[in-house]
Amino acid sequence: MTSGPTSPPTPRAPSAPISLITLWRRSLLLRVTATTLVLSIVVMTILGFLLLSRVTSGLLDSAERTAVTEASVGLADAQRISAAAASGTSAASPASVVDTIVASLAARAGSPPQYDVLLLAGETEGTAPERGTNLVSDASVPPELRETVLLTERQSWTYTEIRYLDGRSAPGIIVGAPLAVTDVGTYELYYLFPLTNEASTLDLVRSTVIGTGVLLVILLGAVAAIVTRQVVTPVRSAARVAEQFSEGHLRERMSVRGEDDLARLAMAFNDMAASLEQQIHRLEELSAVQQRFVSDVSHELRTPLTTIRMAADLIFESRGELDPPTARSAELLQNQLDRFENLLGDLLEISRYDAGAAVLDLENVDLVALVRRAAESARPLAERRGSAIEVTALLDPCLVECDPRRVDRILRNLIDNAVEHGESQPIDVTVAGDGSAVAITVRDHGVGLSDDDIAHVFDRFWRADPARARTTGGTGLGLSIALEDTRLHAGWLEAWGAPGEGACFRLTLPCRAEVVLDRSPLPLVPGEDAADSAEQAVDPDGINEPTDVTGART
């Protein structure tokens, strides 16, 4: 069983309403439904535009053909009436001839009239009478159309706005042609066809298309939501079961309905969950057997070790009476028995943690005094290695509620580890506090740690260089036990290092048991501020993970 260093979790912010962007990222149902709605709106807009264009074009083409045909027939009638008036027995006045033509053409318009007529004088010498029907204004005829009729002397037409003398107006088609009235002069005959009916038809078609499009978009959105929900619901169920599974509820399973692809997915997921549950139970049983084995072996070795220790002490005390090779053997036996006893003690301590039997004996202690005492106990070893231990207290006294025995063991392990790998360079121990948290950093200037070393530095029995000789006689469990002691205090134990630049270990503890850590008073990375270093150590997802030399997660 391996473990990693604890690092500060991100403080939980108060719950806030989910933003639209977050909801968009999280909800597959929302994305599919919204995408379907948007695409449906785009398609319906394009289709509606094409439909309205075709309908409008068809209506206008039909109205244009009708207007041109009617105007041609009316022009022939006007010419016939003009010729009949000229061949009569009695000469008619110009006004009566014009009135006759206009009245005859107006009678063809029906009731209500389908069009209006304007008879405008052209290039005639003197004053020629002009007539119109239904109060239509001669301002309705665009100057461009009149000029075209006069120049080409042919029938011409255009779309324009028809105006009336009473202020009314309407869109329409105007068809004009030259008309020669015998004994009167040259005229321009204009037929004005209002497009009121066509406009009403277009409005009806437009409202129908818009209403139908809106209804279709809503129906398509509902269909997309229903269809997507059939797919999303099993996926959400799988996500919920996976979350429950990750939290330790190993008997959670997905419900299987039908025999389709989603049902097969649910069955495969349940088979995977059952296999994982079986493997986890098997690993738990193996772990329990391993823990029980370590605990039993450690206890069982106590009795023969005690007997061997008594005999070895007796031989060691009498080594002066022995020959040099035998005396040296007695000294080696004594040293290895000390190391064996330390290993048994560490194994027993680890077994207590594995069994969940470790408890704290909290006291209010001065952390500075505790650090100095640990440094003094390690000073003889440091002097033999050529290293000097320097203790710097930024807050003295530095009171903390902790288990002094366990904290002392953490400090001794960290300082001994620094001496072991310090390459005869000074060891800097710094203590600081801010009222809610206290921190100790142990910095050496030795071989340092690589990224891979930092990822495993707190693993049990791990060594950066297995072939390297050790001088402290360590068991390989010191940092692992230090990590467990730190976790028991709800603290952080972190490591930083760089090859050739040394290493730094930071222990952060809450001043009181009820305090939840969110920062450390001391930086982990040398040369940085404590706030920057704490920011690097905080995991954005709130998961405890080790910090590497660059502050990233390993």
What does this structure look like?
The protein has twelve helices and twelve strands. The protein is rod-shaped. It folds into three domains: 18-252, Beta-Lactamase (2-Layer Sandwich), CATH 3.30.450; 261-352, Helix Hairpins; 360-537, Heat Shock Protein 90. The strands form three sheets. The protein has a five-stranded antiparallel β-sheet with strand order 2-1-5-4-3, sandwiched between helices. The chain is α+β, with helices and mostly antiparallel strands and 554 residues long.
List the helices and strands and how they pair.
Blueprint lengths: L19 H7 L1 H59 L7 H14 L8 E6 L9 E2 L10 H10 L3 E8 L5 E13 L3 E10 L1 H51 L14 H57 L6 H32 L7 E4 H19 L3 E5 L5 E4 L1 H18 L5 E7 L3 E8 L6 H6 L21 H11 L3 E7 L3 E9 L19 H8 L17
Helix pairs in contact: 2-3, 2-5, 5-6, 6-7, 7-11, 8-9, 9-11
Strand-residue fraction? 5-15%
Mean pLDDT: 80
Terminal Cα separation, in Å? 18 Å
Count of distinct strands: 12
Number of alpha- plus pi-helical segments? 12
CATH architecture group name of the largest domain:
2-Layer Sandwich
Going by CATH, the homologous superfamily of the largest domain would be PAS domain
Outline the low-pLDDT stretches. 1-16, 467-473, 533-554
Element pattern in H and E: HHHEEHEEEHHHEHEEHEEHHEEH
